[in-house]
Automatic annotation (TrEMBL):
Name of this protein: Nucleoprotein TPR/MPL1 domain-containing protein
Keywords: Coiled coil
Gene Ontology CC annotation, any one: nuclear pore
Database matches in InterPro entries: Nucleoprot-TPR/MLP1_dom
Coiled coil: 74-136, 299-358
Taxonomic superkingdom: Eukaryota
Gene Ontology BP, a term: mRNA export from nucleus
Molecular-function GO terms, alphabetical: structural constituent of nuclear pore
Presence of keyword Nucleus: no
Pfam families: Nucleoprot-TPR
Domain Nucleoprotein TPR/MPL1 intervals: 170-249
Keyword flag Coiled coil: yes
Length: 383
């Protein structure tokens, strides 16, 4: 009976050999594939077995090395155990000896206790002696402290006396220096007082001279103004004389203006000099005002003099300004009068020219009116 087909199928397909062969081929192929899979599984199992074997061998080697190390450690531990047992025996022997020694020490402790009781008694006696000595020492310390306090008080009093002596000496030196400084300041103040007195006398003299010069200058200017007014009153006589006189008056006015300007400049320079000198005097007065009461009183007097001088200078300045305004007004009046005179002169010239023409027309014959003649235009002088 074949394995790849049943009996019924074999009976049915007994005459069909290709079908049976195909079925046999299929069965063989399946067997071949199963064989391949089994071989692959066997190979895989062999590989895994080899790997596990190698792992087991490796583990065996490691375990054998560990076993050898453990054996060596066991031998070492055994030797150390023997050493510890010998040490324990020695320790027990030492313990026995120490017990014997402790018994001897107990006897010594009892003896030392008796000695300690005796020492305590002697210590009490010594403490009593120490207390007595402490009391004596405290008494001595009290006496020593009292002596020290006395010494400290004496040293403090001596130091205070020395400090007071130094202070008195310093005050003496300071007073001597102050006296010398005051004497020097007194000399300086005296010198400055004399110098200021000289300066003030010189300034007062210069101011008096300046006032005299200004009064003389005022008189000269008033005389010149009177002469100018007189000349102006005389200039109204005739036209030609008025014309000439107007020229002369203009020249005189220019000269007077120049003189007034020069006098004004001189007055301004004098005022500036006086103001500078007064400022220096004020500064000197302010500097030396703080020296003493007498100096302050003198400074007050000087300030009064300076104020008086300033008021006088202000009056002079106002007077000069008023006179200058008068001169300006007089000049404007003179210019107005000169303009009026010029107008009158032109009027007179026009009247003279018209009268001359009329006289010429009256003198000409009748037939001369037919001829054309050029009559020149009269020339009017311009002023």
């Amino acid at each position: 009976m074949p394995l790849f087909i049943t009996d019924d199928e074999l009976a049915r397909y007994s005459n069909d050999a290709p079908h049976v062969a195909a079925r046999a081929d299929d069965y063989i192929r399946r067997l071949q594939t199963e064989l391949d899979t089994v071989k692959a599984a066997a190979d895989a199992n062999a590989v895994t077995a080899e790997q596990t074997c190698s792992l087991l061998e490796h583990k065996f080697l490691s375990l054998s090395t560990e076993f050898s190390t453990l054996q060596s450690q066991n031998a070492l531990l055994q030797s150390t155990l023997d050493e510890r047992l010998s040490e324990l025996a020695e320790a027990q022997a030492q313990k026995h000896q120490l017990h014997l020694q402790s018994m001897g020490k107990d006897g010594e402790v009892e003896r030392l206790a008796t000695d300690l009781s005796e020492l305590r008694k002697s210590n009490r006696q010594l403490l009593e002696l120490v207390e007595q000595k402490d009391a004596e020492i405290n008494d001595k310390k009290a006496t020593i402290n009292s002596y020290l306090d006395k010494i400290v008080n004496l040293t403090e009093s001596a130091s205070k006396k020395e400090a007071r002596l130094y202070e008195v000496e310093a005050e003496l030196v300071h007073s001597q220096a102050a006296c010398s400084r005051l004497s020097q300041e007194k000399e300086i103040v005296d010198r400055h007082n004399s110098w200021l007195n000289d300066e003030l006398t010189a300034k007062v003299d210069s101011l008096i001279e300046l006032r005299i010069r200004h009064s003389n200058l005022e008189e000269d200017l008033s005389a010149k103004l009177a002469c100018a007014e007189k000349q102006l009153s005389e200039s109204s006589s005739s036209a030609q004389r008025n014309k000439d006189r107007a020229d002369e008056l203009e020249a005189k006015l220019t000269s007077l203006q120049e003189e007034l300007c020069s006098t004004k400049d001189a007055a301004v320079t004098n005022e500036e000099q006086l103001s500078a000198e007064l400022s220096t005097a004020n500064k000197l007065v302010e500097l030396y005002k703080q020296s003493s009461e007498e100096w302050s009183r003198k400074a007050g007097e000087l300030e009064g003099v300076i104020r008086a001088l300033e008021t006088h200078l202000g009056e002079l300045e106002n007077d000069y300004k008023a006179r200058l305004e008068k001169e300006v007004k007089s000049r404007s009046q003179l210019e107005k009068e000169a303009a009026d005179l010029r107008g009158k002169l032109e009027k007179y010239e026009a009247e003279i020219e018209s009268s001359r023409r009329n006289s010429e027309l009256n003198l000409l014959p009748v037939n001369s009116f037919s001829t054309e003649r050029h009559i020149p235009k009269p020339r009017i002088l311009s002023w």
